[in-house]
Specification:
Largest sheet: 8 strands, mixed
Number of domains: 2
Radius of gyration: 28 Å
Helix content: 25-40%
Oligomer: single chain
Number of strands: 16
CATH architecture of the largest domain: 2-Layer Sandwich
Structural class: alpha+beta
Strand content: 15-25%
Order of helices and strands: HEEHHEEHEEHEHHHEEEHEHEHEHEHEEH
Distance between the termini: 49 Å
CATH topology of the largest domain: BirA Bifunctional Protein, domain 2
RNA sequence: GCGGUCGUGGCGAAGUGGCUAACGCAUCGGUCUGUGGCUCCGACAUUCGCGGGUUCAAUUCCCGUCGAUCGCCCCA
């Protein structure tokens, strides 16, 4: 019986795992400087959390969740995004009672049952942050700057930041009405997708690629922001400008999760086929309360890790490689086997990366093996060496070779 | 969820309704009983994603299925 990995999942092999560690470590380091602390929450949660938190009418909840019943018939769901779980933990552990703004980050797998394509998997990985209990526009800008800083630290070029304000729920419902009024007369001429969007999610009409000309002259959400929302948005922009974060305002930027209010933003880059969004986020002022906590606000972001890696590859950045081997110990003959084994262990205990052969290959082939592992030294233990308690050490890049007593073995390797 | 393309050894890649399924790289062995990145020789797919059908005969044709990939939708 031969098995395949489930559709839309990926094995991360040792060579690629190095790249993943680099991305994760970079994100962690940036978080440390920005003072965001790691939180680890379960990979599955009560289904209701996502229905409530992400929004009943979102695509994610309507058709993309991995939902299952456990043996007690509890409905559980593999997390499709990170914010709901973090906010649930925030409320459940009463972190809202802490005096300072809670700045949290997470990193890990998410699950959505979608049609896979480049940059879109059913199990994918996100890094994200959430800043809870502050409505200060400065923290919106800080979050946007944090994500941008991670892309910078990774060396990604041409990352664009687009921002928008989706206002308060009240602003939005007034705006949706205005949009329907605007599109109603031309609806019959528009594409089927748009016709279904009209009722379900009028703001998405602006996103349509088919009927771009129909959108000309459509009202902008920005005209419907109340004074406070507008001031907040202007303030976020002022803070971004102060940091020289390049951004453009895109009034038709909408995000797919219901909990967003005020600031919405996306990071975009070219290089993954049709996909350009590599990260995004926004403010979610009603979410803490919706999940059973006090009336507190929050703002956060999520970055797609495989998308960041795809962009790095598309831009041909120099990616980290696996560590090189310090010394390959070649034992010749049966008498050397045990001594080889012992010495490999001694070298390792001394902090040296040491390896040997376990396939009884011939001496010459061991050089190839050593080369494949990028070994710096080859150590040779044959009958002669054993008799005299010495080892022949060959520096592979130059071919220089010397024979030293066992007492000098480790120090010679460490010398270069 | 809808539409297009694709699926041959570890990797890359020919090919055909029918004798032993090219070739390249990689790997292992010999050439060279203890010194690599060269040469030459040899080994390496009871089998062409899986299941079914057509046929005297299918890896090659048809259907289904699984998977990959591209686009739409949506998103990270």
């Amino acid at each position: 019986m031969k098995f395949q990995k489930p559709r839309g999942t990926h094995d991360i092999l040792p060579q690629e795992a190095v790249v993943w560690r680099w991305v994760e470590q970079t994100a962690r380091e940036v978080c440390d400087r920005f003072r965001y602390r790691e939180i680890r929450t379960p990979i599955f949660e009560s289904t209701g959390l996502f229905e409530r938190g992400v929004g009943e009418t979102t695509d994610i909840v309507e058709k993309e969740m991995y939902t299952f019943a456990d043996k007690s018939e509890r409905s559980l769901t593999l997390r499709p995004e990170g914010t709901a779980g973090v906010v649930r933990a925030y409320v459940e552990n009463k972190l809202y009672a802490e005096p300072d703004v809670q700045k949290l980050f997470y990193i890990g797998p998410m699950f959505r049952n979608e049609r896979p394509m480049a940059g879109r998997n059913r199990q994918f990985h996100q890094f994200g942050v959430e800043a809870l209990n502050s409505s200060d526009p400065a923290i919106d800008a800080e979050v946007i700057a944090l994500g941008f800083s991670i892309y910078e630290a990774l060396g990604l070029r041409n990352v664009r930041v687009e921002i928008n304000s989706v206002g308060t729920p009240e602003c939005r419902s007034a705006y949706r009405q205005a949009l329907r009024d605007f599109f109603a007369p031309k609806l019959a001429l528009m594409c089927p997708d748009c016709q279904s969007r009209f009722d379900r999610n009028a703001m998405r009409l602006l996103d349509c690629k088919v009927d771009t000309q129909a959108c000309e002259g459509a009202p902008s959400i920005l005209e419907f922001l109340d004074e406070a929302a507008n001031e907040h948005f202007q303030n976020v922009q002022a803070h971004l400008k102060a940091l020289d974060i390049p951004f453009v305002v895109n009034p038709s930027l909408v995000r797919g999760l219901d909990y967003y209010t005020h600031t919405a933003f996306e990071y975009m880059a070219e290089g993954i086929g049709a996909i350009t969004t590599i990260g995004g986020g926004g403010r979610f002022n009603g979410l803490v309360e919706a999940v059973g906590g006090p009336e507190q606000s929050g703002v956060g972001l999520g970055l797609g890790l495989e998308r960041a890696i795809l962009i790095a590859q598309a831009q041909q950045l120099e990616l980290p490689k696996e560590t090189a081997l310090d010394v390959f110990v070649a034992g010749l003959g049966e008498a050397a086997e045990l001594v080889t084994f012992e010495w490999v262990h001694k070298l390792r205990k001394a902090g040296i990366r040491a390896e040997r052969d376990y396939q009884s290959r011939k001496f010459k082939t061991l050089f190839k093996a050593a080369e494949r592992q990028n070994a710096r030294w080859m150590a040779i233990l044959g009958d002669d060496e054993l008799a005299q308690q010495v080892v022949t050490l060959k520096y592979l890049s130059t071919g220089e070779q010397q024979t030293v007593p066992w007492t000098e073995w480790i120090s010679t390797i460490q010398s270069k």
